[in-house]
User: Fold these one by one.
Assistant:
Number 1:
Amino acid sequence: MDPLYARYPFFEAAREAVAGADVSLPALVASDAPAVERGRERVERALRSGTTASETPDAYDVTAELLSYPIARILVSLLESTAAVEKYASAEAATAADRIREDLEREDALRSTDSVSLDLSDVLREFDLADAVRPAVRGTNGGAGSTGQVVEPHVRGGSSGRPSTRDPEWFRIDVGPYLQLFDAEWGDRWRLVNRELRDGTVWIDRADLDRCLERAARSRILEGLPFEFADDDGISSDLEAHVADLRRLLDERATVGSFDVVVPELFPPCMRNLIDKAEREAALSPPESLALMAFLTAIGMSPDEIVAFCADTSLDAEGIRYQTEYLRDEAGAQYPPPTCETLSAYGICHNEDDHWQVAGDPLAYYEARLEAAEDIVDWRDRNDVAEAA
Ligand code: SF4
């Protein structure tokens, strides 16, 4: 089995490999094969942490990892929650986008010895974008070449004929696919009027292309979801216990959102440490920024308020809006920030003064401190913030 399929189980070739394999998903579920536990982990991690990468990747072989994807799709369908399906698809796509970046950034020498081989042209072909996205070089004046001409750089040729140069930093994408891929929630910078449009193509940089590819992956993952099941479908009853666990996780949302007070002095140490780190202009890792955004969202801050709160930090407004959008469902409910245990596993929590004794998650700790405090003033009501607004 090609390890590439396990990393990108929604690729067409991976789906064909599953269809062609002599494997029965109901039998797999009935025997509680490793792919089932990994499938449950995929959905749980998607709902809790915004990723579907395993916390114990060495525990699963390539086949279990690949087959856990259809199992996860069955599980998330059984939750009967549109918000859960959307969060699951976003997490799968974000995980795939991280992997695509990792795999493409490897040097050719390294790549030739690695078991996974992926080129940008392979990825573009996968999403039917091979003809719509073309690499190009910007001129020194910041435009489409100093003479107004587009220069085509040497481009990787895909797994069937790979040149040795690195992928370029700029691309032109046909306006039709661009409009299909971008999301109005991404901010004004993405609106066509704010883009350089020439000969029916839009200029985008490498980071923009990564985001478009993540969007294409999300659309692919959402195809066919949620599944519908017959009442007497054996697979549903065999997965009942896993579904009940995941439903409990979804229900935790009900306990979030009762806050609507922002007192930074009373934030738990883990969140203060992350804010201090961002204020030193140090980049936060994806789990760090997700934990911070989940906490700030859960205490009732709007995306605009979070952008203002983080104005003097390394966090940029566009990234904040993107993450906070992920953390809210259509009804405006939020998912809770990770527990102290999870934050500890990521090295974010240092359990200062043994305050795990006080609370099991940062929200509960904050709530306890609010209850004990007197004369609190909401950050949003403070003079300097009100004047700046
Ligand atoms: S124990 Fe919990 S609340 Fe306290 S710093 Fe660690 S993660 Fe944060």
Number 2:
Amino acid sequence: MTNKTWLITGTSSGFGKALATLLAKKGTVNLVATARNIEKLHYLDEFNHGQIQKLTLDVTNQHEIQAVVEKTNTIFGTIDVLVNNAGLGYFGTFEESNRKTVKYMFAVNVWGLVDMTRSVLPTMRKQKSGIIINFSSIGGLFSFPTLSFYHGSKYAVEGISESLAKEVADCNIKVMLIEPSGFRTDWAGRSSKKILPKIADYQQFKDFIENNKNGAHHEAGDPNKAAEIIYDQATNHINDLPLRLPLGRFATDTAIKKYSDTLAQFKKHHDISVSADQPE
Ligand SMILES: NC(=O)c1ccc[n+]([C@@H]2O[C@H](COP(=O)([O-])OP(=O)(O)OC[C@H]3O[C@@H](n4cnc5c(N)ncnc54)[C@H](OP(=O)(O)O)[C@@H]3O)[C@@H](O)[C@H]2O)c1
């Protein structure tokens, strides 16, 4: 069997590092591990079996995206799995959030993922196969106070991915959304800006932000287990790949409750909803 080629964004830490390490250890895939600073990818050197490429990639840089995709095609001839993992967080009330910082988070979480995907799709359409794995979050389905813009970015990823999945299904390209709850990565620490509320009406949310900051690296989720699950789904369950995969007990319980509650609301208001149409 020929090696599959995996291209992953943001492999310097967290989920990206866990997945790159797992794939590198297996030695049965071609791995393109990317990072803004490839100095942070030394951890891969001990596994180097000739099938690992470390490439510089800031997902907000279109030239770097093009260069990485071209290089991957030249070296390995295929791109079988794209993992859009790179992402940032932002804690702050809606009213007090900094527009510029929040826009940058969207540039990474949404536009970085979009630009990567659009650059890889021609290769996957030509191959008539491929898997696009997009890191969303339980925060792409359910919202907490002080995370409105992070949620906005992940809900955007959800909507874009769901629509894309329908457009590329006939090209034999699958899309899978990963929706983790809290995992032990750098996300709640260095990768998330935190703006404590100054407005008196929002003081009640100060503890939530501080608890997330202090709780970083104590979360329930294990990124290495997440990596195993993602690899298994993309390798052994290709024909039954879920569009949405919550990871972690809190993620799946919250998703089930959110969808159950929403379903009950839709049913309760069904007659009112229907009454808005023109008479038949
Ligand atoms: N951990 C959680 O609890 C959790 C829960 C739900 C969803 N997620 C999602 O999981 C994904 C991975 O995050 P993580 O938890 O593994 O956190 P992490 O350890 O902080 O990793 C984030 C990665 O994104 C990279 N990155 C940031 N901006 C980038 C850019 N402009 N271009 C390229 N790479 C960039 C970082 O690289 P640098 O080293 O250069 O900063 C780092 O490798 C994110 O999309 C996040 O939203 C995380």
